[in-house]
């Protein structure tokens, strides 16, 4: 992966992926399920996670930078998507239905990372695996 990447936070006043709860979760916004980061999720943590994550791109992706970056943090799977191609990403909690189909190797890597962090049970519950 061509790290380091810059983490780009929610735009003010949009703040689409933030809420006032202490845990990650989801909210319905205009009929869509939106991942929400826990209150107090620092910019420093997000920056560190985006550069320690697992890159993923579909086979049809023809760029040198990853389309998505996945991480495990506090028992939650987060997905970061590019904001400025090749330079910055924005992350949010991943929903099971948003995880790429057929990405068996990515799933195995995430579960290994969860085991290393002692979070396997929480990640399996979060992702319905």
Features:
single chain; 129 residues; alpha+beta; 5-stranded mixed β-sheet; two-stranded antiparallel sheet; globular
Written description of the protein model:
The protein is globular. Helix 2 (104-116) runs antiparallel to helix 3 (120-127). The two termini are 27 Å apart. The protein has 129 residues and is an alpha+beta fold. It has helices at residues 43-52, 104-116, 120-127, and strands at residues 6-7, 25-29, 32-36, 54-56, 68-73, 76-84, 88-93.
Task: Write the topology of this structure.
Layout: E1 6-7, E2 25-29, E3 32-36, H1 43-52, E4 54-56, E5 68-73, E6 76-84, E7 88-93, H2 104-116, H3 120-127
Parallel strand pairs: 1-7
Antiparallel strand pairs: 2-3, 4-5, 5-6, 6-7
Helix pairs in contact: 2-3
Order of helices and strands: EEEHEEEEHH
Q: How large is the count of helical segments? A: 3
What is the oligomeric state here?
A: single chain
The strand count comes to 7
Shape: globular
Into which percent range does the helicity of residues fall?
10-25%
**Strand portion:** 25-35%
Gap between N and C termini: 27 Å
Biggest sheet character:
5 strands, mixed
- Estimate the mean pLDDT confidence: 91
List the uncertain runs.
none
Based on CA atoms alone, the radius of gyration comes out at 14 Å
Give the neighbour order of strands across the main sheet. Answer: 1-7-6-5-4
Structural class determined from secondary elements = alpha+beta
């Amino acid at each position: 992966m061509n790290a380091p990447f810059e983490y780009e936070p929610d735009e003010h006043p949009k703040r689409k992926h933030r809420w006032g709860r202490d845990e990650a979760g989801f909210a319905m916004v205009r009929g869509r399920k939106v991942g929400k980061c826990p209150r107090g999720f620092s910019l420093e943590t997000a920056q560190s996670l985006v550069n320690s994550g697992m890159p993923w791109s579909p086979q049809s992706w023809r760029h040198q930078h990853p389309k998505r970056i996945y991480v495990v943090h506090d028992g939650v799977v987060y997905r970061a998507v590019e904001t400025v191609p090749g330079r910055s990403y924005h992350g949010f909690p991943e929903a099971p239905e948003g995880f790429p189909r057929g990405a068996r190797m990515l799933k195995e890597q995430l579960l290994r990372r969860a085991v290393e962090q002692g979070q396997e049970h929480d990640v399996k519950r979060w992702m319905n695996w």
